[in-house]
Design brief:
The protein is an alpha+beta fold. It contains 4 helices and 5 strands, in the order βββαββααα. Strands 4-3-2-1-5 form a 5-stranded antiparallel beta sheet.
């Protein structure tokens, strides 16, 4: 009788509860714009460097963020993106039909990539004293939007003064009773 070679049993048996990756069927939809916010609406910023400032809403970007402008000449707020959670909508409106906002999207506000190359010890501890300049195109775009907005703002009496004042609450003020 010839010896037949038996198949070796495997030394590893997979567990019954091996996790399998789930198929992701999530489709990201654009954030719904709050009903009280419409293009030209004056908003109050609640957080960040410009908190308390009144700004004009221009449009909603693809990411769901709001594109707002001060305008810079009136209250010092440049064109920026803001989450709608951090604004209060007021009842005031400005005509923004003449503002050209086609070039503003989320890619416009993306910061340039940092240089991630390995630095020597001297370069690592070197203090960078140079002042970072804003791109000339950003400043020109800001001025173009400011010009279009300031014409609409000057058409409404007291709107320039309204936009330049800070929103503040004092003791005794009841924000839930206020009509913005």
């Amino acid at each position: 009788m010839a010896k037949t070679k038996q198949a070796k049993s495997p030394s590893f048996y997979p567990a019954d509860d091996v996790k399998k990756p789930l198929k992701r069927t999530i489709e990201h939809k654009q954030t719904k714009l709050r009903a009280s916010i419409a293009p030209g609406q004056v908003l109050i910023l609640l957080a960040g460097h410009f908190k308390g400032k009144r700004v004009v809403f221009i449009k909603q970007l693809a990411s769901g963020l709001l594109l707002v402008a001060g305008p810079y000449g009136v209250n010092g707020v440049p064109i920026k993106r803001v989450n709608q959670r951090y604004v209060i909508a007021t009842s005031e409106k400005v005509d923004v039909s003449k503002v050209d906002a086609k070039k503003f999207d989320d890619a416009y506000f993306k910061k340039p990539a940092k240089d991630r190359t390995r630095k020597s010890e001297e370069e690592f501890f070197k203090v960078d004293t140079s002042k970072k300049e804003l791109p000339a195109s950003y400043i020109a775009d800001n001025q173009a939007v400011d010009a279009a907005l300031s014409a609409a703002i000057s058409a409404t009496p007291y709107m320039k003064e309204y936009l330049s004042t800070l929103f503040t609450l004092r003791s005794g003020d009841k924000p839930h009773m206020m009509k913005f």
